Structures are given as structure tokens and as C-alpha cells.
Amino acid sequence: MERLLDIDEVVAHVKEYLAQGDIDHATQTIADLRPADQAEVFSELSEGQQTQVLRKLNAEDSADILEELHDEEAADVVESLHDADLVRIIDEMEPDEAVDLLHELPPERAKSILSALSDPNEIRPLLIHPDESAGGVMTTEFLALRRRMSVAEALNAIRLWAPEPEIEESLSHLFVVDAEGRLVGVISLYKLITSPPDARIGEIMDRDVIFVRAAIDQEESARIMARYDLVALPVVDEQGILLGIITHDDLVDVLEEETTEDIQRIGGSEPLDKPYLDSSTLYIAKRRVGWLLLLFVTEMFTGTVLRHFSRELESVVALTYFIPLLIGTGGNAGSQTTATIIRSLAVGEIDWHDALRVLWHEMRTGIMLGAVMGIVGFARALMWGTGYDIALAVAVALTMVVLWANTVGSVLPLLAEKLHIDPAIVSGPFMSTLVDATGLFIYLQIAKAILGV
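Above: the chain sequence. Below: its structure as C-alpha cells.
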């Protein structure tokens, strides 16, 4: 079995070579690695060392490294490069990756770089599409077959094309267009190889081809690819003309990006636009402070509720013992529900039209969970010697709070999706804070009714 690569050891060697002025050995060490490992080693170098390495590495390796980095990180890296060096590297990048990098550069420099590329027309069509759309993540480097081609002509076209390694893996299926470039079918490479050489592509292709429009969101494109196990997904314009394809590596990038954003929003923070360690403390603070202030203001409602019921709490001090239990249980139940609903939304299991079914599902779940928590809470209250009435108030309140948390936790993500807001925003701290205040109000109202205070 091949020994796992020790990145730290490689970084140490590269830095040692650079410290000795041996740029050739440093760059050769990096060039011998796989692209993902190259990028990881490269990221550990100082800014000056990165510039040295990029200028010395061949354009193909430099392009591989920049493609593996985050867009913002790549833009920071090339900031100190001369335009001639950057043009040399971008010429070797995949069109979609090159567009992402150009989007991060100052407009004037991006325009200058674009005009100096060997084939700017390969990239220009991609610049008009938003970054997070299907058109923004597609590549224009693909082979389209004509339906009037013979099998022999199609196979010869594949031999002459000689695609990049990243595109080779998408060749299991090839897309077919008509004379105007409209997508009309798809054919597997296996069928192409096993068909008679003189057979026409239009006669043996599959006309039922899955595609997306260029304006569709990248997350929806990724969802379609995952649902139908597609290696490549064709992207067309409003007239059905084939513009490009989304490959499986684009799918992985999209899923990673969307998952990262959701996780950070679930934690109650705006997503970072660059790697964590490359983000300044001021930048991180700015991304968090807005939500922290909003949650702080929301949490003030809890204090308002306590103040409103101050007389009742003063007369029955034992009620305060169960406040952390009540609001903690409600927040946890709400977070469980939102996590489940958001996941179901993400994979396409439910949508807004399922709102009533989801609500009924979670209400029944809430009653079951609330009953269990109520029984446990009732027993715990009696063990503390608080009396039957307080124990009953705690039990009923726990049942109602869990039911309420499940109800809110099921509706809010669906409502956010309907309003085109990321459902992750209403989960985690936001859900807990909301249920804290409302759950406390429910508890004290129930206690007031049962105890008659």
C-alpha cells in the first residue's frame, strides 16, 4: 500500500530549498505532486515564496494550483504577478475556473488580461453569467457531435479532440446538436463504440436528455446531477442551444461551497469568502457581529417575559428552577426539527407545497416527544419536592413547548424557502433564541393558570 503523503514534511523541504535559493528543487518538488497536494503545499508558503514558485513553475502546474485554491485566495496570490505571467497561467486554466479568477480581479486588470489571452472568445461567453448560476460554473470545453455524423466520424472527432484530463472523465456520455447548435440528444461512449461504423448518430442517440438552463441556480444544477447520477450536465440557453457542460468536479465544488455556507449560517454567522486562517480577525468579527447583535436583541424578549411575570415568580420561586430546563428543551427540539427540514429541502424531498403535510408530521412528532419529556419533567419536579401542582405545570408546559418548537421549526425553513431566503438562516441560534422567549411565555402562562397565581 502506498504511504500517505506527509504534507508537513514536503512543506518543510520546499521551504528549506527556497531558503537556500534553490528554486529549481523547490518547484520540482511541487511539480511532482498531485494538483490537490500542490495547492496545499503552496498555501503554506509565504506570499513572496508563492510568487517565486508561480513564476518558475510551468504554466500547467501553476494553473492546477490556482484552480484548487479558493477564488479569493487565488486572486490574492496573483496580485503580485506580472500580467504576462498571469496570462501564461490563465491560458492553461479551465474556462470556468479562469472566469472565476477574472471575476475576483480589479475590472481594468481583468479586461487587460482577457484581451491578452490566446483565445479570449473561449472565456467571454461565460463572463455574462452570474457566478452562482449554471452558466457561471459550466465549462465551454466540450465536444458536441452532429446528429448527421457517422459513428466512424464521431470516434475520429474524439481522437482529434484530445481533451484535458478533467474533461476525459465526462466522456462516458456525449451530447448531440443539430446544425444550429441546439441540444437534441445524448449518446454513451459504449454505444458509440459498439455501433456499426456507418450508423448515423441521430439514429442511435437517446433523445431524452436531461439539461438545465444557464440561469438556473448552481445548487439546483448540483441537485439534478446527484439525483440522476450524471457525470456531466449540459447547459443550454432559452433557444436550446448548447452553451457548455457542468462536470462532476464542478458538482463537488458547488456542494462543498453550499454546504460550507449552510454550516456557517446554521452557526449564526455570515459565510466567510476566504479560508478561515486567511481571514483577519476584524473580517471575522464583521461577519459575526450582525447576527450576534440580532440574537442579543431577540434574547431581550426573554427578559421582557420574565419581567412581565415577576409577581408570579416572586410568589412561587420554585417555578424559576425549571426555566433553564424548559427553554433548553424547546431550543433543542426546534433545532432538531429545522436541521431535518433543511436537509430535506436541500435534497429535494420536500418543498413549499408539502408545508401542511410537514406541519402535521412534526406536530404529531412534537406531541409524542413532548409527552415523553413531560413525564420525565413531572417526575423530576416531584423528586425536588416542589409539589404536585408545580410538577403538573412543568409537565404540561414541556409538552406544549416541544410541540410549539416542532411547529415553528417545521414552518420557518419552508417559509424562508418560499421567500427565496436561505433556510439555514432560521436554524441554530436563531431558532433557539426565538423558542427561548416564546417557550418561557408558554410555561409561565400555563403555570399561572394551573397554580392560580
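Strands lie at 144-146, 173-177, 183-188, 212-213, 232-236, 242-247.
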